[in-house]
Amino acid sequence: MIKFALINEKGGSGKTTLNVNLASYFALFKNQRVLIVDMDPQGQSGKSLGIDVRNLDATVYELLTGEARTGEVIQQTRIESLFIIPSNKSLANLPYKIVDDPDRDVKLRKVLSRLKNFDMVFIDSPPSLGVISFNVMTAANKIIVPVSLNYLSLDGTAEIMDTVERLKKANHLKDVEFFMLIPTMYRRTRLASEIISTLQKHFPQLVSRHHISLDVKIDEAQSHGLTIWEYAPRSRGANMIKEVAEEIWEKIKS
Ligand SMILES: Nc1ncnc2c1ncn2[C@@H]1O[C@H](COP(=O)(O)OP(=O)(O)O)[C@@H](O)[C@H]1O
Ligand SMILES: [Mg+2]
Predict the structure, then answer these.
(1) Which helix (H) or strand (E) segment is 123 a member of?
(2) pLDDT tens series, the chain, 254 aa
(3) Which residue out of 147, 148, 153, 222 has the highest number of ligand 1 atoms within 8 Å of its CB and is therefore the one to mutate?
């Protein structure tokens, strides 16, 4: 079971968009049984799949606090072989609830290690650094960082790498690795090209060959609660995400 996590403490870097559309791509086109885990209290992975997350009482929060079991929180989505553990704003209480728990940074890791019947897991993360994102980092074995090409993205990327290294050491984890940096929100500007070349210089094995430009269809799909494959499968946006998905597929097969 491959556990991908999309992390970047900056909001608006494309985490949720990629999380939902990559997970659904592998479920729809690669015959994978895929589970999305939403670790953002905004609950947008669920919303992006058309799920009303506001009034759920079995979410990732209840799973992590031991009030519910996996079977009670995993929901089938519209897409066959795509499942989700949704979240909503109750997740914002998690840091207070587990503050004294010595295992507080590895709660999600423990829960996911008991899951057997999925090929892939995609974990979405909040736009902040703290116990929730630490749980995402330690639960994953392949970390994907969407890097939006506008401002300070290099600083942010280096910081994420430091944080993950620190958590790996503190919790004696060997199986957590950086898998890919995906340039997002690309515009044809000199700044964007400069950031891409600097990323390539610093992280030559990690930067994806394909990047994601802006396409309004991606935004529209999300606002309709649909994946890009359902809303605009022939759009430029769908094509860009498909290229990145195929690159990920190639990399895990090699
Ligand atoms: N390639 C893109 N083109 C146009 N809009 C996009 C693109 N990627 C993301 N968006 C939109 O930008 C907003 C932020 O993206 P999102 O994936 O939610 O970022 P994050 O989860 O990192 O905060 C959303 O409204 C989303 O629909
Ligand atoms: Mg998000």
Answers:
(1) strand 120-124
(2) 999 999 998 889 999 999 999 999 999 999 999 999 999 999 999 999 999 999 898 999 999 999 999 999 999 999 999 999 999 999 999 999 999 999 999 999 999 999 989 999 999 999 989 999 999 999 999 999 999 987 677 788 888 999 999 999 999 999 999 999 999 999 999 999 999 999 999 999 999 999 999 999 999 999 999 999 999 999 999 999 999 999 999 999 99
(3) 222
Q: What is the whole-number distance in angstroms between the Cα of residue 16 and the centre of ligand 2?
A: 4
With 0-12 / 13-18 / 19 or more C-beta atoms within 10 angstroms meaning exposed / middle / buried, residue 106 is: buried
Crossing angle for the helix pair 153-170 and 131-139, to the nearest 10 degrees: 70
CA 124 to centroid of ligand 2, rounded, Å: 7
Cα separation, 243 vs 199, in Å, equals: 19
Token duo for residue 157:
């990327």
pTM over 0.70: yes
Report phi then psi at 147, rounded to 5. -110, 110
Q: Please, where are the H alpha helices in the chain?
A: 15-29, 44-48, 60-64, 70-73, 94-97, 107-113, 131-139, 153-170, 190-202, 216-223, 228-231, 236-253
Q: What domain range is 213 assigned to?
A: 2-253
**Separation between Cα atoms, residue 83 and residue 78, nearest integer Å:** 9
CATH number of the domain within which 49 lies: 3.40.50.300
Pull the structure tokens for residue 85.
């553990």
Ligand 2 centroid–CA 254 distance in Å is 29
Q: For the chain, what is the domain count?
A: 1
Q: Is 38 in the pocket of ligand 1 (CB under 6 A)?
A: no
